[in-house]
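Dear H.,

Thanks for agreeing to be a second pair of eyes. The structure we're designing against is below in token form, covering all 143 positions.
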């Protein structure tokens, strides 16, 4: 099998990306994180919000933990970048969109998104088809 085979991200990566978008759509301000890039890359059917795992009430605590964790790490990266940090390695990157959402920070770092080659090839292709932020800021490293 070719390591660069274009394979869509697994259901966990897709669910996390959709929950991040649902946070923007369903949760009241202020937003912990503004991230609809994964939604754009996935381009799900219009009824994706009707899926059981997208129910706004049921998934609220899960969404909260996902966006809080991402925000905590991103704030830490921003703080450390101001102190000279020059690399950010995201293990199991999935549909992480830090490099696209935060180009003002990512442009000063070497951002490595480490994940399986197939989903990374898929993500690179989708970023070309649906540009979001810095088109050069995509998966740069792989397992």
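And this is the sequence the design step returned. I haven't edited it by hand at all.
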């Amino acid at each position: 099998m070719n390591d660069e085979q274009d394979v869509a991200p697994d259901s966990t990566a897709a669910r996390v990306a959709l929950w991040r978008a649902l946070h923007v759509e369903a949760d009241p301000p202020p937003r912990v994180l503004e991230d609809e890039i994964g939604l754009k890359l996935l381009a799900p059917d219009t009824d994706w919000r009707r899926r059981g795992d997208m129910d706004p009430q049921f998934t609220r605590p899960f969404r909260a933990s996902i966006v809080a964790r991402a925000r905590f790490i991103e704030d830490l990266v921003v703080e450390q970048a101001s102190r000279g940090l020059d690399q950010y390695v995201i293990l199991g990157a999935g549909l992480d969109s830090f490099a696209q959402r935060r180009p003002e920070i990512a442009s000063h770092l070497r951002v490595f998104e480490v994940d399986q080659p197939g989903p990374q090839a898929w993500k690179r292709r989708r970023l070309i088809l649906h540009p979001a932020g810095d088109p050069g800021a995509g998966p740069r490293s792989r397992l």
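Two observations from my side: The chain has one domain: 11-129. The mean pLDDT is 91.

Warmly,
E.
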